[in-house]
Design brief:
Blueprint lengths: L5 E4 L5 H5 L7 E4 L9 E4 L2 E5 L4 H6 L7 H9 L3 H6 L2 H7 L7 H6 L3 E6 L2 E6 H4 E3 L2 E2 L6 E8 L6 E7 L10 E9 L5 E9 L6 E2 L1 H7 L30 H20 L9
Parallel strand pairs: 1-2
Antiparallel strand pairs: 3-4, 4-9, 5-6, 5-9, 7-8, 10-11, 11-12, 12-13
């Protein structure tokens, strides 16, 4: 990687469509055959998701309920063919504001492991994605894994996305939620992230704080106000206006909260 400039590819599901009819003028390094970088493993401190792990791998893995939001997002990524090839690492490296994987990974407090000839370093996902199509990955680095710290067995999560149609669509807005109740059924921790409504998906810290101590049961959505989404910075484009996106984000947050506190059998497929 030190010799010359290389474009790192895993699934290539973003790279090749963006290339269109133009000839490829840069050197490509396809990592697909490196099996050591693929798979989800349990470690002492949490979970390790290899950089070449596909969306289909996530859907098929046996994971705690805290990963239900990530699994739901995985089912929303393009078509089945895209899910079979596309990787989580590629999704975050592409750094689109509409990257489906980012909000649920934010609620999982994911860290990015970056490997280079000089060793490895770790960054929080929030620090890794720095802007639209921009990351903190250096020219001599690649994403070797996503590291997810331990989550409690009582934690549940959800993911909701709105687009112009059901599948094969770029989102107008999307929301991921994780709720962790205590032994008394009160919310001990809440994480809420919104994507497609700002240059980088972001957590709603004010809302998260306001949910602490509330009963983790139906009706939680009533806690969401317009003020909680006021910090978003959506754009006007062909898919929707900024005002529409803000309104939709608030509604999706309400619905995602209800999904996250529903009994496990009613919270949707895992």
């Amino acid at each position: 990687m030190k010799q010359g400039s290389w474009r790192i590819l895993a699934g290539g599901t973003d790279f090749y469509p963006a290339q269109g009819d133009r000839p490829i003028s840069e050197s490509l390094l396809d990592l697909t055959a490196i099996t050591e970088l693929r798979g989800i493993t349990r470690e002492d401190s949490g979970w390790r998701v290899g950089g070449l792990t596909t969306w289909t791998d996530v859907v098929e893995a046996r994971l705690p309920a805290a990963f239900n939001g990530l699994k739901a997002a995985a089912r929303e990524v393009g078509s089945i063919q895209i899910q079979n090839c596309g990787t989580l690492a590629g999704n975050i490296c592409n750094a689109s504001p509409a990257a489906d994987g980012v909000p649920p990974l934010l609620t999982l407090n994911a860290e990015v492991e970056l490997a280079s000839p000089n060793g490895a370093r770790r960054l929080s996902l929030a620090d890794f994605i720095t802007g639209v199509r921009k990351t903190a990955c250096r020219p001599d680095e690649l994403v070797s894994a996503l590291l997810i710290p331990d989550v409690g067995p009582q934690s549940q999560s959800s993911f909701l996305k709105l687009g112009a149609r059901r599948y094969l669509v770029i989102s107008i807005a999307m929301v991921a939620v994780m709720i962790t109740p205590d032994a008394q059924g009160k919310i001990a921790e809440a994480r809420v992230a919104v994507g497609s409504c700002s240059p980088v998906a972001q957590r709603l810290k004010g809302l998260e704080e306001s949910l602490i101590g509330q009963a983790a049961k139906s009706g939680l959505s009533e806690a969401v106000t317009a003020e909680h989404v006021a910090g978003l910075a959506p754009i006007n484009d062909i898919r929707g206006t900024a005002d529409y996106r803000t309104d939709i984000a608030a509604e999706l947050v309400r619905r995602a909260l209800e999904h996250a506190v529903a009994p496990i059998g009613e919270a949707g497929p895992a």
